[in-house]
Amino acid sequence: MPLITIGELTLELQHKGIKNLHINVLPPDGRVRVSAPASLSETAIRMAVARRLPWIRQQQTHFQAQPRQSERQMCSGETHYLWGRGYRLEVIPVEGAHSVKLQGGWIRLRVPAHYDAAKREALLLSWYRQLLRQRLPILIAKWQALLKVTPSFVGIKRMKTLWGSCKTDTARIWINLELVKKPPECLEFIVVHELIHLLERKHNQRFIALMDLHLPNWREHREKLNKMPLAFNRWGY
């Protein structure tokens, strides 16, 4: 992806078949990606970015200050999160079938002794996905009835820069698997946020008014989500 430099700021630039310029500051380190209409000149792009520099710096400072976990080794004693609470991991070698169970303050991971960290992590993620699949349809059913909208598809996947996404032209919604680690109200906030995009595509005053109407304390949930530790990820892509 082409890079351009504005002062001390280096950003990624991609031209797309879009009408408006979009500036995104991405976790975990605050790198900047600009999506611009194909017809927009580099001079115009530079001017637009320059006008947003204070906001860009503010977002980068936020990411740099946000706590984050170290790389997970998937060994006994590590802390892993579920619904906003930290649990200690216990890895138990077994000869039979593998399993993951929540018992007291522990996530007990029973796996064959030859399983390496990657296989242990895959098993834990599968368990996380199962738990989110149990809770997500309940929230979707609740809020699609209240909002009178019907998504064509709701899926779960790991996303590196978004908690959720909504493709309004197809009504397809994706929810980030990482939300299973956050407090339940954070998941509900993202569900409502994405469903309201089926009523209003942009983050404009109408969108905010709809959020205020249906989930008056959404700002508190957003703040809580933003303060939670970021998972360790190999973010380059």
UniProtKB/TrEMBL annotation:
Provenance organism: Aeromonas cavernicola
An example Gene Ontology molecular-function term: hydrolase activity
Gene3D superfamilies reported for this sequence: Metalloproteases ('zincins'), catalytic domain
YgjP-like metallopeptidase domain: residues covered: 26-227
CDD domains according to UniProt: M48_yhfN_like (cd07344)
Keywords: Hydrolase
InterPro entries cross-referenced by the UniProt entry: UTP_pyrophosphatase-like, YgjP-like_metallopeptidase
Transmembrane stretches, start-end: none
Name of the protein this chain belongs to: Metal-dependent hydrolase
